[in-house]
Amino acid sequence: MLIYLARLITNPTGALTAIHKKYGDFVQTCFFNKKLLFTSNPEHYEEIFNQEARGLLNRDSLYEAKKPMFGDGLFNSKGATWTNQRRLMQPMFTRQAIAEWHGIMLKEACNATRRLKNDGVTKVNISEELKTLIQSILIQVMFGQAKTSHNEELLMAAIDTIVKGLFPHLLTETLGKGKLKRLFVLQNRRMEKAINQFVAYVDSKIDGIEPTGHDLISLMMNGRDRSGSQMSRELLRDEAVTLFLAGQDTTVNTLIWFFYLIGKHEAVHKRITSEIQGIKDDLLTPETMERLIYTKAALYETLRLYPQAIALSRDTATTITVGGKTVSQGTSVIMSLYATNRDARWWERPNEFYPEHFLNGAVTQRHKYTFLPFGGGVHNCVGRHFAELEMMVIIATVLREFTILVNEDIKPTVSITYKPERDVIVSITQTTQAL
Question: What family does the Swiss-Prot or TrEMBL record give for this protein (predicted)?
Answer without folding.
Answer: Belongs to the cytochrome P450 family.
